[in-house]
Specification:
Blueprint (H helix, E strand, L loop, with lengths): L1 E6 L1 H4 L5 H6 L5 E8 L2 E4 L8 E4 L3 E2 L5 H4 L17 H11 L3 E7 L4 H6 L4 E3 L5 E6 L4 H15 L6 E5 L22 H8 L4 H9 L4 H16 L9 H9 L1 H29 L5 E5 L15 H5 L4 E5 L5 H4 L12 E7 L11 H10 L4 E5 L6 H14 L1
Parallel strand pairs: 1-2, 1-13, 2-6, 6-9, 9-10, 10-11, 11-12, 12-13
Antiparallel strand pairs: 2-5, 3-4, 7-8
Helix pairs in contact: 6-11, 7-10, 8-11, 10-11, 14-15
Length: about 400
Amino acid sequence: MRASAFLYPWDVNGDPDAAERVAALGVRQVTLASAYHSTRALTPRHPRHRLVTAEHAAVLYPPDPDRWAGRALRPREAGDWAPGDAYGTAARALEAAGLEVHSWVVLAHDSRLGAEHPETSVVNAYGDRYPWAPCIARPEVRALLVDLAAEAAVRPGARGTELESCGWYGMAHLHAHDKIGGVALGDAAQYLMSLCFCDTCRRGYAEEGADPEAVAATVRRALEPVWAGRADAHEAGWPGVGRLLGAPLAAATLAWRTRAARTLQEEAVAAVRSAAPPGFRVLLHADPAPYRTGANPGVDPAHILGVADGVVLPCTGGGAGAVLPPFAPHAREDTVLAANLTVVTGMGGAPGRLAEDAAHAAALGATELRLYHAGLASGPDLEAVTAALRTLS
């Protein structure tokens, strides 16, 4: 199976051995971040630093001044953690080592945007804003994300792209110094806490036949047992959403959110293809449950495989059995179904099981592997990856 390792530019730049070390793993491709959210990242092998702090979401290349001139919403350049054309410098080094480079673009996940333009953020049923989560239904946000997708994806030399967070973001985020674990939430409660009630989304619910005030009040009422610590907190799946919210309101909210997400995804992919050379592959990080939010937003498998060239699916910890089968029946001969497996032990990965997990994913329809994350992994983790890829080849 073709395998690609995720990397940040700062994993490569300033380390003359990095590109060859990645190539020696046995991967053919690198998925290299060109637009990324704020993070704090370990660099265990870099000769000049051990920790990189990316203070805010940023593009890791110089943005086109003509594209963004006069626009209030625009991407920010990185600071000293990725100065200049950090992406381009790293990409050239990786290409020189014989690796194919694809861009990695994070879209609807930007805390600085929410801090500087709070009106762009998701607003929950209690009136709390989520500054890390732009509301993708808002026209000004969509315009930003679509243009960012095209610019950040089609970098010089890139052979394809992966669009992460191309859909709804919600409550779960791993925000700075998160302290939200006091009440355990099932995924149904997470959905209710991720519903947006900005003016655009209120109009959207009304278009679907639901009174937005009634939706918000029902959400708050449904969550009271959750805050009290009763079993409702652990309602699971879409049936759980229906039990908490009521089937008609649940259907109305999902219909609006699905419409907003689908059209964003269609517009973003079309913008990338319009800017890209022939043969450029466009993949989306995704989940087959349409109500899911986050880095792998929920999609309808049949629809998204009619839009993009494929998907990247979260398969760590036995997840392959839940996410791959819904996509496999809709795959064309050239469709990419990439199983994303964490290979960092300290982040819940199991690099020692990589060969077994890859074979299981392939049996379920996976055509490629994504390895998260070559820059963050320890030496022993990378040795396990190398051994597994040698077995798989």
